[in-house]
Design brief:
2 strands, two-stranded antiparallel ribbon
């Protein structure tokens, strides 16, 4: 089983780009803004969206000890070459938890794009926005436009 962690991929430009579609410099620029929203969410809420009554902390068994790993998780999925069950396996979690994290990460990415519209290229912003609006579905070859049903 392959386990992905950003720290292990950050010096492998080709693999990071293959998995996420982003160069390390683009990933870091996106992460700079993503981290703020990630920390803000977990300082007030749990993963399930329940109010947090104690201070959030990183434990030894944390799924994402670094918010870069959470962003990596989300971008790998949005790239569309892996389904949730496979992605969950590669991060050592089950599919229902992967789904919860992906919902949160997608929402936070939307907030990043709203607050920092120049953080990544317009083309990449459009790709993310279209996926978040569910106009496109990830596929193994990229993205496929969803046809409206009559």
């Amino acid at each position: 089983m392959i386990t992905y962690r950003y720290e292990e991929l950050r010096h492998d430009d080709a693999l990071l780009k293959k998995l996420t579609g982003y160069k390390p410099s683009e990933f870091e620029a996106l992460h700079y803004h993503f981290e703020h929203f990630w920390q803000a969410h977990f300082s007030k809420f749990t993963l399930d969206g329940m109010p947090r009554f104690r201070q959030a902390s990183i434990r030894r068994n944390s799924i994402f000890p670094d918010s870069r790993d959470a962003l990596l998780f989300g971008l790998i999925y949005l790239k569309g070459q892996i389904n949730q069950a496979e992605l969950a396996l590669s991060f050592g979690i089950d599919q229902p938890k992967a789904s919860k994290y992906l919902s949160l990460i997608e929402r936070l990415l939307g907030q990043v794009l709203e607050s920092a519209p120049r953080v990544i290229s317009k083309r990449k912003q459009e790709e993310i926005r279209n996926i978040l609006k569910r106009d496109y579905l990830p596929t193994s070859l990229g993205y496929k436009k969803i046809s409206p049903k009559n």
